[in-house]
């Protein structure tokens, strides 16, 4: 046992962590369960909430304001969402599902594994930073976003790593990349590389310049697909 580490109580196990919203979005997309519910009132409220949160921020927005923006009553919004937290969760979950789907659509336009890495890198940054809600939360309410997606203990990165590792394994199965490539570690390094541009402002890289991002991906990420032999 490491110094300062509390001993586990015999017979008692720590409760399992609930999946983050990003993990849930990943599972939904991978499992093909990403269709929007056939509930026009609920969709109308989610659209209104997205617009309200983008304009005013989540913390400064109320359920009543969302209902008014949707043109619906207070009773209706509480019938669909018990609490503001439940509404926020569903809005962010929907955006994360769209993020994964956009990623798949963008890499689907590439012809090679190398170009799919480039397209994926550019798509990831564009989808996050270009999203008025998620990108806005990164800049103005990072603590709230971290709490919503479980980012404080690495679960956010783990979810994206799982998603990317799955794409790399598909490339392996198709014979497009080396069969002995460590897909989990490669995905981990790629995700951490990308995440640095989301969390730490750069004075050298314009994260809104797709051509510059593509050039960076070709220089630094693509070589990860063919690591030197030990």
Automatic annotation (TrEMBL):
Keyword DNA-binding recorded: yes
Residue ranges annotated for the HTH tetR-type domain, each copy included: 39-99
InterPro entries per record: Homeodomain-like_sf (IPR009057), HTH-type_TetR-like_transc_reg (IPR050109), HTH_TetR (IPR001647), Tet_transcr_reg_TetR-rel_C_sf (IPR036271)
DNA-binding region: 62-81
PROSITE patterns (UniProt xref): HTH_TETR_2
Protein name: TetR/AcrR family transcriptional regulator
Keywords on record: DNA-binding
